[in-house]
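Hi V.,

You were right to ask for the full record rather than a summary. Here it is.
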Amino acid sequence: MQAMQYEITLPADYDMGIIRERVATKGPLLDDFPGLGLKAYLVRERADGSPVNQYSPFYLWRTVAGMNTFLWGDGFRGLCESFGRPVVQQWTGLAFLRGPATTPTRAGKVTRRITPEEIPDAVAELKVEDGVHSVALAVDTRGWELVRFTLYEDNPAAEYTVRHLSTPELDQLPVGRHW
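Predicted structure:
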């Protein structure tokens, strides 16, 4: 499993309706994408109390081939034409768990935590609670930083809102520790 995210920060006065419309029309195009476990179309909006307007999709790739097909395909090319080529963060998957709220319609909020935690300890302590769709743990080995993405049914403290969730191969992502 590979985790991936890019962040497109938009001007403070940007009409976020443009992003909501983009997600509504283009989001379903990845609902059957080969090699994709999960894509959460994430946004942060100043109107909702965020410090920034941002479009920040998050991916869990089941295969590197699927990830590469996306990055060099028409969909990502179109995004680059609209917003410029973003920096794409990638992390090696360490663990994945599904929670009790695993239907796509029940993932509404996401938190992302990046920390210098001890990786084996973080994996051992990984668990899901009521209202959690799924949780992924991954590592950036350049700085040995751990990233934890948690998808919730709802969480008022979450920094991201899920506008669409594509889960074509969610059931094929390996559950538990990945080593």
